[in-house]
Amino acid sequence: MRVHFGRLALAAVLTAAGVAVTAPAAVAGTGAITGIGGKCVDVPSSANGTRVQLWSCTGGSVQQWTAGADGTVVAASGKCLDVAGGSVANGAAVQVYDCNGTGAQRWTPHAGALVNTASGKCLDAVGVSSADGTRLQTWTCTGGANQAWTLPGGTAAAGFCPQGPFGSPLPSSHQSATKIQGGFNFLEGPTWDQASQSLLLTNMHDGAGAQHVQPSDILRYTPATGAFTTVIPDAGSNGLALARDGKSVIAATHDQRSVSRYDLATGQRSTLAANFGGRAFNSPNDVTEGPDGTVYFTDPDFQRADRPDGMAGKTAVFRAHDGVVSLIDDTIREPNGIELSPDGRTLYVGGNATGKIYRYPVNADGSTGPRADFASLAGTDGGTIDCAGNVYQVTYGDGVVHVLSPSGAALGTVSAGPNATNAAFGGPDGRTLYITSGRPSAGGDSGDFALYSVRLNVPGWPY
């Protein structure tokens, strides 16, 4: 991913989400600032204390801002973008106020976000909403779509990726990962939670009940303490993806043959995709979310168990947006891992039973274009992608992560355990690759899966 704010100059060292980063300061430019949903940053009055909001872009003076080289963001009225009371707390109101040179009025673009230099918190649209009148606040940086901003004269993409160029992703062409902890029945779906600096992952158990459906729990691994804890019991999940709001996790939930969202604070479950045209999915497996909130997921039949086939023998790739489920492709036998490029323009899908990885162009509305072959690779399972756009595709039977360039060229491998299922980037700098791998159960929850990790050269994309 490349991030440009006009011309950029290295300037401030700040702490964002608990991570020290060197960030560029914006060279002055005047125009609109746009955010989630393409809405403009708007201030309806020049009075001190007026809350800043999102509004449909009109081109009017209330939506004109000057991003200064000194870190100020100044409205047409001459008032500065300001954190009320200089607060460093999550949820602090963002307003306009007489320019006073304090840290509450200094902002630094970093990886597509706009960071207040005093608090290290990101400019954030409340409630991950793009509705007219949505107020702005500061919040712990999550990489969510509601924290992605385009400044005058520049473009940006949400996320935690630093500017390139990037070198080789692997220290050597054949890397070996280190076991962190074993003894789990069947691990899947790792995804990094930036806010808590921890890894979420699924532990699936052996099939139970009359239909032999596999129950599962969502675990949390905290590297700082080495602890594994259960955060959502009986989640029924397989693949996971941290949501763009940074406050929930999207889960491919085979227990209900659905795609679900779990609030990480409350554990509350909601359904994002229940069926396709009234027909039950097989067993949603892996999932990812685009910058506009579109959820993409694969639907093989691995965890359908003894339940009726609602898809007439087909396995497929789907997308869901605002409650509407659309078919992407139902001609891939056992589609499995699914990854979205950092710029949101390319979707990758592993064909577990076809010996291919496929790619689809992603349109501005979240729909996809014609499928093309990306690489030949048999037995694909989950995967991830790094900030340079390199694809990390896991193959189950040999416990290997295959690293492929954006053109599909093989760059090397990472080995971890006998049967690898999935991989995700994490860690404070995003350069730790976590891999789930092990020996499956022979009955009675006798599996022995472990979490592995390896340090790589290029940070990874968290979604």
From TrEMBL:
Claim: Transmembrane is one of the keywords in the record: no
Pfam families for this protein: Ricin_B_lectin, SGL
Catalytic residue positions: D381
Ligand binding (substrate): N285
Cofactor(s) essential for the protein: Zn(2+)
Manner of cofactor binding, per the entry note: Binds 1 divalent metal cation per subunit.
CDD domains: beta-trefoil_Ricin_laminarinase
Boundaries of every Ricin B lectin domain copy: 30-152
Keyword tags: Hydrolase, Metal-binding, Signal, Zinc
Top-rank taxon: Bacteria
Signal peptide: 1-25
InterPro entries in the cross-refs: 6-blade_b-propeller_TolB-like (IPR011042), Ricin_B-like_lectins (IPR035992), Ricin_B_lectin (IPR000772), SGL (IPR013658), SMP-30 (IPR005511), SMP-30/CGR1_Lactonase (IPR051262)
Residues involved in a divalent metal cation binding: E188, N336, D381
Keyword Nucleotide-binding included in the entry's annotation: no
Family of the protein in this entry: Belongs to the SMP-30/CGR1 family.
Official protein name in the record: SMP-30/gluconolactonase/LRE family protein
